[in-house]
Amino acid sequence: MAARALLWVAAALGPGLAQSRYRPDWASLDARPLPAWFDRAKVGVFVHWGVFSVPAWGSEWFWWHWQGQHDAACERFVRRRFPPGTSYAEFAPLFTAYDFQPRQWAQLFQRAGARYVVLTTKHHEGFTNWGSPVSWNWNSVDTGPHRDLVAELGEALRESNLRYGLYYSLMEWFNPLYLADKQNDFKTQSFVLKKMMPELYDLVLKYKPDLIWSDGDWEAPDSYWNSTSFLAWLYNDSPVKDTVVVNDRWGQGCSCRHGGFYNCADKYRPGTLPQHKWEMCSSLDSHSWGYRSNMNLAEVMDEISMIEELVQTVSLGGNYLLNVGPTKEGVIVPIFQERLLALGRWLDTNGEAIYESQPWRVQMENTTDTVWYTSKGPVVFAIFLLWPRDSVLCLSSPIPSPGTQVTLLGFGGTLQWQQRPEKGMLITLPYMLPSPLPPQSGWAVKLEGVK
């Protein structure tokens, strides 16, 4: 009788209150199913933008290299470019975002084939790209652009039906509260209680993000950051509790072990299929995540490398998050635009093999790393990165049947194929006319009726 009464009370409270709540411990939090939208999305764009875009030299770690490590090259750069005695804080008014057009960004990212976008709301320098109530005069509303950059981009992305992720660095290199806690071996939590936690709650309540991309966690344990308490609130009571996704950077030892999806490390590439959902973050500028004025073409990822990273990542069950660093004025430089649009053109043709796909029983041909597989239900996609010289694609992994049909995405009609004497199949591809230009990177054949 008591049990029936409890069931009745649960039903009366409604589905939200009746369901069990997540506890502030990893065993409970790690058991939360990942919201399905993230795995289906596959492709995202990362944006590193902040006061570090003003010196635009070295990388987004400029302040640390300059005044944390006293790097001679950084010190020489400042002496040559800025007045004597210049401090990092004086760069903030030069972070103008004069040319920032959030709708143009959103349209570019949409044309690039991205399904979600992650913006740095605060990097390790501590400057916030919104009017943080606990970052007085070190935020984009009080100084610099005098604009709420987080809000403006979020509004534009949602108009374009793109999911919105917020990157947030837990630590700040030179914040006195953080340095005092660090001096105390992180046994005190002044920085967490007065700065970090108020900002994380503010971001969630104000902007209702689809994703929180945590970083800057590595110096202290998750108990210092109060990570599990925050995530329990996020999953139980926040306005995004049913849809929000988080990564794995919540304290020492958490990476690749705890959280939502795993990043493990920047530009992480697993050799085999991981058992847990993961994401590879990569940058178009091979030397930096933030914009560099002295970047040259050889340091920018080319189209072939970009497609290879995407295909290999998705074949192994990952998402691909590709980074650009805008200028201090808010311009995404033309070479980055060109690369993003090239990715979008490839996805326009081959997206069926990428979006909402799953890893197949075989992820790559065992004879070569230039053929990778994805699947959707009974349909298998073989994505090959090099066009075979004789226009015959040799696949050893699929087992064909008499009813097997083969098509090349972006090409009308079915393709001829024959069974190999040993195992697998030989597919006759359309003839390609000789061209002085290199062919596009990557093609996908759709295999129906194979095992």
Explained architecture:
With 451 residues, the protein is of the alpha/beta class. The protein contains 14 helices and 14 strands. It has helices spanning 2-13, 15-18, 26-29, 36-41, 62-68, 72-81, 102-111, 149-159, 176-183, 190-207, 222-225, 227-236, 303-315, 334-350, and strands at 43-47, 116-122, 163-169, 211-215, 245-246, 278-283, 318-324, 371-376, 379-384, 392-395, 400-408, 417-419, 425-428, 443-450. A seven-stranded parallel beta sheet has the order 5-4-3-2-1-7-6. The protein has a four-stranded antiparallel beta sheet with strand order 8-9-14-11. A three-stranded antiparallel beta sheet has the order 10-13-12, with no helix packed on it. The longest helix is centred in the middle third of the chain and has 18 residues, at 190-207. The protein is globular and about 75 Å long. The model is unreliable at 1-18 (pLDDT under 50).
Short note summarizing the structure:
By secondary structure, this protein is an alpha/beta fold. The protein contains 14 helices and 14 strands. It is globular, with a radius of gyration of 24 Å.
Write the layout of secondary structure elements.
Blueprint lengths: L1 H12 L1 H4 L7 H4 L6 H6 L1 E5 L14 H7 L3 H10 L20 H10 L4 E7 L26 H11 L3 E7 L6 H8 L6 H18 L3 E5 L6 H4 L1 H10 L8 E2 L31 E6 L19 H13 L2 E7 L9 H17 L20 E6 L2 E6 L7 E4 L4 E9 L8 E3 L5 E4 L14 E8 L1
Parallel strand pairs: 1-2, 1-7, 2-3, 3-4, 4-5, 6-7
Antiparallel strand pairs: 8-9, 9-14, 10-13, 11-14, 12-13
Helix pairs in contact: 5-6, 7-8, 7-14, 9-10
